[in-house]
Design a protein that fits this description.
The protein has 517 residues and is α+β, with helices and mostly antiparallel strands. The protein is built from 18 helices and twelve strands.
């Protein structure tokens, strides 16, 4: 006999187990949340299937994310959407859309998104991840200070030339035997930003500094780990679990402690009216802020504080080391993989510079093939494949699609730098991409330093370092694979795409006297 509906539901409710009721409630909440989000986001770009609450999380591969993105582009077009938990994400592909986001609507997409991992392991301060007026103040001060200490001037070029001499000698010590160039290159590149930031360089055999560089490398690689990515999804759980996120925090704390110690030393040794380096300059700015606050009974709020000094210094140290060092490691790998290209570069070096002096930036204009090769290393190395993420600060429209405030935006540099419509052999290392009738040719579809208001602050420094270090090394050595070894262009994912660790032989090209400065 059938029960009346009114009597049936209470009976079912009473008979159901607590677990069943909780599961039923969870399903209802998930469906309600899903339907609500679909209603709130009309005219959203197409994209992969997304689960309620979790979104597209299971379709993202942290180790090959930039490759998965290219598959989505082929399926959904030059603008597509995803969702991670409740955060909407979009990716744009192609120069017109990338310029629309970074340049035309640069003010709309000027901020960085917030990630729980940043608050846990780092801080959302400094230069790279801060937003609003805090970011503007730190960037303006840092750029002005770097210019005061030689950015774009001959003095900094001389420092790079001097460091190139030390790097050549460090590699010469390997006596042509197989070695991993990672930390020699890291040390050389880092010494440039250290000389500006800390006021001194570090010897290549300094074990303490080498450990610091290893922490820097670990901090970059660990962020691509499953545990670190999952931390951004479930921080309230991951805080209590072991994993790579805990190691990342430990490595970053080592770097913070090092910087804090250097700042403490600067405070103790500060006896000059004129700042000697970035930390000195920042400490003097802090003194001015404190004086103004005392005059106004503490009613002046300032974004210049010691926390931002530590964060800015770490940002300069990290960005000024990791990106250029990684690019140079790709450069040596490509030279060994393409010996005929290496020979053409060396022939140009011998013709324009010879062996009696060091390369200078003035030589670059007369060395189109070498300049083109450096640019091709950046294109193929693809070290920041989808650029640093941005977030929409207000509701806007891109390519006719609605972009709600808070949407994370990625710009697909991988597709830009591998577009078969732009590059004759997009998957092959080929300096001819940057040459026309034997002369160097700038390419609009080449944005390794990004574009717009948050364009790389150290672009000019990086370009100088890449040309001088690369040219000095090829002037003195021929790089090749060790016997019975097959080198590979495979990559390792982290904050940057870097080559998998490799060993290489650096064979001296000459027996002539060492270069003078």
């Amino acid at each position: 006999m059938q029960l009346p509906l009114g009597n049936g539901l209470p009976s079912l409710w009473e008979a159901a187990s607590l677990q069943t009721l909780l599961l039923f409630s969870a399903v209802l909440l998930i469906l309600a949340s899903y339907v609500q989000r679909r209603r709130q986001r009309p005219n959203f770009p197409p994209g992969p299937f997304r689960l309620p609450i979790l979104g597209s999380i299971f379709q993202i591969d942290t180790k090959n994310g930039h490759i998965i993105i290219q598959e989505f582009v082929r399926k959904y077009g030059n603008i597509f959407s995803m969702e991670i938990l409740s955060t909407p994400m979009m990716t744009v592909t192609g120069l017109p859309l990338i310029k629309e986001v970074l340049v035309n609507q640069g003010q709309v997409f000027i901020d960085r998104p917030h990630f729980p991992l940043l608050s846990y392991a780092f801080k959302s301060a400094g230069l790279l991840m801060s937003n609003g007026q805090e970011w503007k103040d730190q960037r303006r001060f840092t750029l002005m200070t770097l210019r005061n200490f030689g950015l774009g001037k001959k003095t900094l070029e001389l420092r790079i030339q001097e460091e190139a001499t030390y790097l050549v000698e460090a590699i010469r010590e390997e006596k042509g035997q197989p070695f991993d160039p990672h930390f020699q290159i890291n040390n050389a590149v880092s010494n440039i930003i250290c000389s500006v930031t800390f006021g001194n360089r570090f010897e290549y055999h300094d074990s303490q500094f080498r450990e610091l560089l290893k922490s820097l490398d670990q901090a970059s690689v660990l962020q691509a780990s499953w545990a670190c990515q999952f931390f951004n999804i479930c921080p309230w759980i991951m805080k209590f679990l072991p994993g790579a996120h805990k190691k990342l925090r430990r490595e970053w704390k080592k770097l913070e402690s090092f910087v804090a110690h250097v700042i403490k030393q600067h405070k103790e040794d500060q006896n000059s009216e004129e700042a000697q380096d970035f930390i000195d300059a920042y400490l003097k700015e802090l003194s001015k802020v404190m004086e103004r606050a005392q005059k106004h009974a503490g009613n002046i709020s300032s974004r210049f504080n010691e926390a931002n000094l530590v964060a800015c210094t770490l940002d300069l140290f990290f960005a000024g080391t990791e990106t250029t060092s990684t690019t140079l490691r790709w450069a040596l790998l490509y030279m060994a993989l393409y010996p005929e290209i290496q020979g053409k570069i060396q022939a140009e070096i011998d013709r324009v510079i010879g062996q009696s002096r060091q390369p200078t930036m003035a030589d670059r204009e007369n060395m189109p093939y070498t300049n083109a090769a450096v640019h091709e290393v950046q294109r193929m190395g693809n070290i920041i494949p989808v650029n640093a993420p941005r977030v929409a600060t207000v509701d806007t429209t891109v390519a006719g699609y609605h972009v709600p405030k808070g949407t994370m935006m990625l710009t697909n540099l991988t597709a830009l730098h591998r577009d078969p419509k732009e590059w004759a052999t997009p998957e092959t290392f080929n300096p001819e991409h940057f040459l026309e009738n034997g002369q160097f040719k700038k390419r609009e579809s080449f944005l390794p330093f990004s574009a717009g208001k948050r364009v790389c602050l150290g672009e000019q420094l990086a370009r100088t370092e890449l040309f001088i270090f690369f040219t000095c090394l090829l002037q003195r050595f021929t790089f090749q694979a060790p016997a019975d070894t097959q080198l590979s262009p495979d990559f390792r994912t982290g904050l940057t795409l870097s080559p998998v660790p490799y060993k290489i032989c650096a064979l001296p090209r000459e027996t002539q006297p060492k270069l003078g400065l």
